[in-house]
Design brief:
There is one protein chain. This protein is globular. Strands 1, 11, 12, 16, 17, 19, 20 and 21 form an eight-stranded mixed beta sheet that branches. Strands 3-4-5-6-14-13-10-9 form an eight-stranded antiparallel beta sheet. Strands 15-2-18 form a three-stranded antiparallel beta sheet, with no helix packed on it. The chain has two domains: about 140 residues, Lipocalin (Beta Barrel); about 180 residues, no CATH class. About 15% of the residues lie in helices and about 45% in strands. The chain is mainly β.
Length: about 325
């Protein structure tokens, strides 16, 4: 027996879905244009190139202490310094400029304004020098968080981890969501006085070439694949179980870097919980999930001349974890 929209326990503000919204045509990537980025990143990450190899999603250059990879499907570039990544035993990092704050969710750590600005400036200069700069819609600097727990699960210590400078993008005036539109710089602290040591880098942003407005599904229609979905290994009875929606974001869905994509269409990325469901062994469990829900119907896309955009289907689970009670 499926859920209905009225059954949902909505614990967030659902976004307003317009009657029509843009679908953006994407340009095929030009892999030759990535040679400048590859050369610049090997220098910025500080490793020696010993050769080039084919990998399932594209090609990689590098050596024993690092690699830079290029993705054929999207033109994405990913790099890492393996020596730097293995330098630390765990997630703990000692930053000189850190503030400790607390809100209703608990304690969290934030890089000081001066340190965050230095990392941002260094990141933007690098992006421009390797030919990957573009107009970004958002810029954030965050610190990873770690915690140490006692035997009962209570937190007894916590602190900051690796720093990330992240850029977000938009197309057709709408935010790009999903894994296929972002730039991430991951930094470790540097005792020599430099802003930080870059350990990893990832950039994926497909080019755009045209926009068409299409009719959107209603919010109730968009949720249907989630409401009627079956959950493997779980007994879900809507008369006793509860589906809670904790987050819902509207945007144009950008698919993963290794997936060919010819257009970006509006979608919701939804997070939530299934509460009060039974596992096969009889345990009462809670399942956390995240899903992409398309907002443009297949017929409308076909009539507008858009071909298949990839294998992300309505109702696909993109994250999930069951927790026993």
């Amino acid at each position: 027996m499926p859920f209905t929209f009225a059954d949902l326990d909505i614990r967030t503000t659902l976004p307003d879905i317009p009657a029509s919204a843009p679908v953006v045509s994407l340009t095929p990537p030009c892999i030759k244009d990535r040679s400048r980025a590859v050369e610049g990143l090997t220098k910025a990450l500080g490793f020696e190139v010993r050769g080039t190899v084919d990998v399932p999603h594209g090609y990689a250059v590098g050596g024993p202490s690092g690699q830079v990879e290029v993705f054929y499907a999207s033109g994405a570039v990913r790099g890492r310094n393996t020596d730097q990544l293995s330098k630390f035993e765990d997630e703990r990092r000692r930053w000189a400029d850190v503030t400790k704050d607390e809100d209703h969710d608990g304690v969290f750590f934030r890089l000081g304004d001066a340190a965050a600005q230095r990392l941002t400036t260094s990141s933007m200069r690098l992006l421009d020098s390797i030919g990957l700069s573009g107009d970004h819609a958002s810029l954030t600097v965050t610190l990873g968080q770690w915690a140490r727990l006692d035997e009962s699960g209570a937190e007894i210590d916590s602190g900051p981890g690796r720093a990330t400078v992240q850029l977000g993008y938009e197309a057709g005036g709408i935010r790009l969501i999903g894994p296929g539109a972002k730039t991430n710089f991951h930094y470790d602290p540097d005792d020599s006085g430099e802003p930080g040591i870059m350990a990893r880098f990832f950039h994926v942003l497909r080019g755009t070439e045209g926009v068409k407005d299409l009719r959107m599904l209603t919010i109730e229609e968009a949720f249907q694949p989630l409401l009627t979905q079956t959950w493997s290994g779980l007994k879900v009875d809507p008369t006793s179980a509860k589906m809670a929606i904790t987050s819902a974001t509207f945007g144009l869905l950008a698919l993963p870097a290794d997936v060919p994509q010819t257009y970006a269409a509006p979608a919701l990325v939804v997070e939530g919980r299934l509460e009060g469901v039974l596992a096969e062994d009889g345990r009462l469990v809670e399942l956390r999930f995240g899903q992409y829900l398309p907002l443009a119907n297949a017929k409308g896309l076909a009539d507008a001349g858009f071909a298949s955009s990839g294998p992300v289907l309505p109702g696909s689970v993109v994250a999930g974890r069951a927790r026993g009670r």
